[in-house]
């Protein structure tokens, strides 16, 4: 059984695939936060910008079989849009649910498969695009992939810790402070610090959450 919060067709807003059309499949639940605001502060991941609780979002639900979920995703790729359909498995933490059977079901329908993961759980090699976004003190187990996209700054997870891992692209993504309760800093300072870091460490590129800027999902 796969629990999905929501599914929608949009453009990848972040990282190396920015601007690319994709079906987003947002899995329910996360291993670094239970999604309840009252436990945010004491969770391992404190700045999450996403509601991943339950299955009540648009296109969300419970899918008994991998083929059933793959079909539902495939149906969100608009008829007549050329090219291979691209699905981004996100969440919540998708690797709590994504398994070989689901990846195979996607591939059998000729979909290209990406994941957005916090890197605390292993990702099968069969996934076509792996984006790892490390979180605070959480132990990283997925130490290779296509892109490493670090939300910045995180004082328990600074870029130096990750720069020798095996990824093709390294991104700094300014932390969006809008979701954090209390006095947590100034958004313009976060942006300035992120720009400064990239300008002094050319291995790292800036990733802006463009979907938030242009007002799409
Ligand atoms: C909601 S997470 C879901 C996937 C997975 N759990 C993870 O953390 O990578 C999707 C992406 O949004 C990023 N993100 C979450 N909250 C953010 C925030 N407040 N500011 C910037 N990026 C954020 C995550 O780091 C991740 O790259
Ligand atoms: N447009 C858009 N791009 C995204 N890239 C990663 C996202 C995510 O929440 O995982 C996301 C998202 O929520 N929307
Ligand atoms: S690990 Fe990802 S989904 Fe989980 S709380 Fe953090 S940003 Fe949100
Ligand atoms: Mg998002």
From TrEMBL:
Swiss-Prot/TrEMBL keywords: 4Fe-4S, Iron, Iron-sulfur, Lyase, Magnesium, Metal-binding, Queuosine biosynthesis, S-adenosyl-L-methionine
Annotated residues for binding of [4Fe-4S] cluster: 30, 45, 48
Pathway assigned to this chain's UniProt record: Purine metabolism; 7-cyano-7-deazaguanine biosynthesis
Cofactor(s) needed for function: [4Fe-4S] cluster; S-adenosyl-L-methionine; Mg(2+)
PROSITE patterns: RADICAL_SAM
Organism domain of life: Bacteria
Binding site for substrate: 11-13, 26, 90
Pfam family, one: Radical_SAM
InterPro entries: 7-CO-7-deazaguanine_synth-like, Aldolase_TIM, QueE_Cx14CxxC, rSAM, rSAM_sf
Binding site for S-adenosyl-L-methionine: 47-49, 92, 133-135, 173-176
Domain Radical SAM core: residue ranges: 17-217
Top EC group: lyase
Family: Belongs to the radical SAM superfamily. 7-carboxy-7-deazaguanine synthase family.
Subunit structure: Homodimer.
Protein name: 7-carboxy-7-deazaguanine synthase
Native organism taxonomy: Bacteria, Pseudomonadati, Pseudomonadota, Gammaproteobacteria, Alteromonadales
GN (gene name): queE
